Amino acid sequence: MIVAVHYTYAPAAPLAEIRPSHREYLSGLAADGVIVASGPLPESNGALLIVSADSPATALRILEGDPFYQHNCIAERTAEEWRPVIGVLAP
What we know:
The protein is an alpha+beta fold. The chain has helices spanning about 15-30, 55-60, 65-70; strands spanning about 1-10, 35-40, 45-50, 75-80. The longest helix has 17 residues, at about 15-30.
């Protein structure tokens, strides 16, 4: 299942300080095939992560290891199944 996870960053979060370890963690998940893609959403002060997981709840559990999550940089997270029908992720 493909899961779209949306992060909204906390206003005073030390993102620049923690970003290297955050990217290292996500890069490891990408190497394992768990993270399909991820990147910032600059206009909304957040990020979108495309995750391969059994369920949205599993995707969120996996991302509990993210240093941004562990250092309270994320004010809100949402996850929902995403069914791409066009493009490289479409079946």
